[in-house]
Fold this sequence. Notes:
Layout: H1 8-22, E1 27-33, H2 37-45, E2 49-61, E3 67-80
Antiparallel strand pairs: 1-3, 2-3
Amino acid sequence: MFRNGLGCATSLLRAAEQRIAERELLTARLSVEVTNMRARQLYEHLGYLPVGHETDSWSEGDGHGGTRLYVAELIVMGRLLTG
Length: 83
């Protein structure tokens, strides 16, 4: 399923997990848009499980020199970090 990937996302995520573990924290959490199934499948493949839902928003360019508010429905995912 991930054969076309280059492993960059996995490498970045593992590096982030290492930094989290170095701070002696026990879990890593991330949020992914509900509609981003490819990313969610990758996170699940790496051991992340859904732990909740949230809504977030931010300003982004509208392509015409202005901005618009982007609202995203997110799945919160977490993974227990073990030595």
